[in-house]
Amino acid sequence: MKIPFLKTGDSIAFAAPSRKVVALDFAPFENHLVRNGFNVVHAGNLCLADNQFAGTDAERISAMNALFESSDIKAIIAVRGGYGAARIVDQLNWNALSQ
User: 14 forms bridges with which residues in the sheet?
Assistant: First the structure.
């Protein structure tokens, strides 16, 4: 599998597969990407909160799988990592990334 280089106009997604985030966590980098011609997409759960997580396990699974399955998304950046990703890793549609 050869992954193509990103180019101006490509969509880059900000995801939160683990710990909850707030806009201040990613705004500077998002602004940098936009200034450089990229389209930034937010995962559906990006600013959700369920205790320390960015939404429930089901919300995080759904949001990540939607990004994996979107042909418009050319890169995914996890804004923050952590233990929450280990809780959902077996439920992600990894096969969608190879299509």
Answer: 42, 77
Gap between the Cα atoms of 77 and 59, Å rounded: 17
Phi-psi domain of 9 (left: phi exceeds 0; alpha: psi -120 through 50; beta: other)? left
Contact 6, 38 (CB under 8 A): yes
Q: Which SS3 state, helix, strand or coil, does residue 25 take?
A: helix
Over the stretch 27-58, which tens digit does the pLDDT of each residue have?
Answer: 999 999 999 999 999 999 999 999 999 999 99
Q: Which of 54, 48, 42 is nearest to 12 (CA)?
A: 42
- DSSP-derived letter for residue 18 is S
Asked if pLDDT for residue 1 goes beyond 70, the answer is: no
Question: For residue 83, what are its two tokens?
Answer: 């233990």
- How far is 15 from 50, CA to CA, in rounded Å? 15
Contact status, residue 14 vs residue 44, Cβ threshold 8 Å: no
- Residues 84, 19 contacting (CB under 8 angstroms): yes
